[in-house]
Amino acid sequence: MSAPHFSAAFRQELEQLFIWRRDVRHFRTDPVAESVLDGLLHTACLAPSVGLSEPWRFVRVDAPERRAVIRANFAQANAQALTGHNGDDAQRYATLKLAGLDDAPHQIAVFCETDPTQGRGLGRGTMPQTTVWSAVMAIHTFWLAAAAQGIGVGWVSILNPAKAALALSVNPNWQFLAYLCVGYPQEQASTPELERKGWEYRNPARRRWINR
Ligand SMILES: Cc1cc2nc3c(=O)[nH]c(=O)nc-3n(C[C@H](O)[C@H](O)[C@H](O)COP(=O)(O)O)c2cc1C
């Protein structure tokens, strides 16, 4: 197979994908076709991983009772997070929608098998966290691939990870990384919702190199 040539037009479209990929919290309830979800998982698995260890474990959460436990976990963690803010800040935090758990038709928990046999330990002797970083790269690949098909992904991290892992009855050695809400977004936007709500803004200083 010969390597593809990526045209300037493709690169411009790819840049648009990066610009329009959003963390989505407002979902339509109609499902994404199973074949499309399978395709996203296959694409996510093209992510790089330390020693080719592929330590990501994508867990579909469909059972209503498990979803309810995660929903309650989020409500508790979010209420706790609110107590970390005061005055105007607390009022503003309370208005933010920080998960699409009620509407997203698909929910996917992502774990990392932190000490997998696959990869035979290559590359992670000095930095064992590299397995987690690898799994996060798969999440990002999934996120971008979804955005390319008009599918929204919302990363929910406001959860007690130990309780979330317990609720999903997975291998106790897997580390809970992310809970993803997946579905078609109610709206598209080229800027983060947190910016649109006045909570935080992209900082142009981050686009400058630090030189040493
Ligand atoms: C590791 C990680 C955890 C996140 N957790 C949450 C979360 O719990 N709730 C939420 O609403 N957004 C969460 N986000 C989304 C960020 O708020 C979002 O990426 C950021 O505001 C930039 O917006 P954008 O992704 O639309 O560009 C998370 C993102 C990352 C990468």
Automatic annotation (TrEMBL):
A Pfam family recorded for this sequence: Nitroreductase
Record-linked InterPro entries: BluB (IPR012825), Nitroreductase (IPR029479), Nitroreductase-like (IPR000415), Nitroreductase/BluB (IPR050627)
The protein's name in its UniProt record: 5,6-dimethylbenzimidazole synthase
Occurrences of domain Nitroreductase (ranges): 20-184
Entry's Gene Ontology molecular function annotations: oxidoreductase activity
Domain of life: Bacteria
